[in-house]
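User: My instructor asked us to take a sequence, write out its structure as tokens, and then describe one feature of it. I'm not sure where to start. Here is the sequence I was given:
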Amino acid sequence: MAEPAGPFHVLRSGTGRFLCYCGPDGVVYVTDAMEVWAGELGGCPALSSRCPPAEHGAMLRAALGHGAAALSLGPASAALRLPEEPQCPAVALAQLPAAEARSQLQALVFGMAGRIESLEKRLEAVETLASSCSPEKNTAQSQQLFLPDPSPRKSKASGSALPGKRKVPGESLINPGFKSKKAPSGVNFEDS
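Assistant: Let's start with the prediction itself. The structure tokens for your sequence are:
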């Protein structure tokens, strides 16, 4: 059984709490840690629905993300629906058999444990960086751990692609490209 792709969302139905997540195969899973229900997230909605099939899965994912999806449980099935979008049909979820549910829960636990381990390593790296850097450097360098580098890195062995610019005599160091019209005279301290 493949590990869950996430993201993970907590749903409430009555007095119960349920974990909802997507698998890498496009299936949405809902579990109360004892039983598991599954259904096709990108499945084709009913023909009478005004909700386009291509948008149905995306709308449900967005609703899960901001807590607007509703879960209703039946005897051996469940349904995820969008209360704010009545034209979109509910996604039918079938209860998995015990053996399949057990393997799905095992994949969920180990998948979440792997994510936690990865986050702990990243946090440890940030804390190590924070203890060895000044506050100004800390912010910039800790952000580099979480954000991809927008510029491609060049190897030091390949050399610079741009030729070095030489300083022209009389050119300003502060404002390059501006050449003084007067000869430098120095500072006269006796003019006061």
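For the description part of your assignment, you could build on this observation: The two ends are 86 Å apart (CA to CA). Try explaining in your own words what that tells you about the chain.
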